[in-house]
Amino acid sequence: MKILVCNVGSTSLKYRLFDLGSEEKTLSEGKMERVGTQSGAWTHQDAGGAAEKQTLPLPDYATGIRLMQRALLGQALGSMEELDCVAFKVVHAKDVTGVQLLDERVLGAMAAFNTVAPSHNPPYIAATRQFQEALPNTPLVGSFETGFHASMPPEAYLYSIPIEVSRKYAIRRYGFHGASHEYVATKTAEWMGKKDFKLISCHLGGSGSLCAVVNGKSVDTNLGLSLQCGIMHNNRCGDIDPYIPIYLMKDFGYTMEQIE
User: Fold this and answer.
1) What is the pLDDT of residues 167-191, one digit of tens each?
2) Tens of pLDDT, residues 78-105
3) Residue 175's closest CA among 207, 214, 142?
4) pTM of the model
5) Which among 4, 7, 257, 260 is positioned nearest to 123, based on CA atoms?
6) Which residues contact 249 (CB under 8 A, 6 or more apart)?
7) Cα-flanking dihedrals φ and ψ of residue 156, to 5°?
8) Which of the 8 DSSP states describes residue 75?
9) How far apart are the C-alpha atoms of 149 and 173, rounded to whole Å?
10) By CB atoms within 10 Å of each CB, which of 33, 67, 143, 205 scores lowest?
C-alpha cells in the first residue's frame, strides 16, 4: 500500500510517500516553504538519493502540488494511480473529529469553523480541493488534531456558559496537537513498560499546548474552541482576562479588527 501524507500549513506544504508492505519504507519526501510568494523554497529527496534544493516561484498550492507530482513521478511512482490514498493532518471541524474521509460533508464542517481557525482551515480546504482535481480517483483522508481529545469528560470540555448555547453553536473545548500528545503518551507507555500512568504532555513550539493523560487517554487540555487560548504562543496571547477586549472597546474605542 502506498500512502502520500501531506501536512499543509498556512504557507507551507510538506509531504512524505510511504510504502507500507511487510515493513514501512519512505520512498520520497519533501517540503515547500513560502507558498504564495515568488521566492518559494523547495527541498525534495528520493530514497537513497541526495536532497535537492530549489528556490522558485510558488504562487499557490496548485503550483506546489503540480511540482510535487512531477517529482514523485520522476522516481518513486510510475503513475499517480499507484497511490492508495492521500492522508492529511487536518485541524478543526464543527462536530467532526477523528479520522475521516474528506468528502463534502467533512469539508463543509471545516468551512463552518473558518472563523475559529482562520489560519488553518481555509488553506487546508483549498489544498484539499486542489488534490481532488489532481487525483479525482484517489481517496483523501484527514486525521483531525482534535481526535485524541475526544475522550475528555464533560467536566473538562464544557465551558461555564448556558448549555443551550454550547449545544446550538458547538462551543466546547476541542483541544489540538492531538497527534503530538498521542505520540508522547504512546512512547512513554513503551518506555515505562506499562499503560496505567498519569502524564502531563507539553507540546512546545510556535504553537503550544498542555494535555493531561491518564492511562493513555486525554482527560484535559488547555486549548479550547480555538487555538487562541491556553499558554502563551509565538503569535497568540493565550489566556487573558475575558474583560480586557470589552474594556478596550468600551473605554478606548478599539474596533473588533484591532482586538483580533
Assistant:
1) 999 999 999 999 999 999 999 999 9
2) 988 899 999 999 999 999 999 999 999 9
3) 207
4) 0.85
5) 7
6) 255, 256, 259
7) -95, -35
8) T
9) 9
10) 205
Strand pairing of 140-144 and 85-90?
parallel
Residue 1 near residue 21, CB atoms below 8 Å: yes
Which of 30, 47, 149 lies closest to 98 in space, CA to CA? Answer: 149
Whole-angstrom distance, CA of residue 74 vs CA of residue 84: 18
Q: At 93, list the grid cell.
A: 471541524
Per-residue pLDDT band for 127 (boundaries 50, 70, 90) equals confident
Return the H-helix or E-strand segment holding 66: helix 61-74
Q: Phi and psi (nearest 5°) for 250?
A: -75, -45
Instruction: Please name which of 142, 157, 160 lies closest in space to residue 223, comparing C-alpha atoms.
Output: 157
C-alpha cell at 181: 500528545
Q: Does pLDDT of 75 surpass 90?
A: no
Give the DSSP letter of residue 36. Answer: T
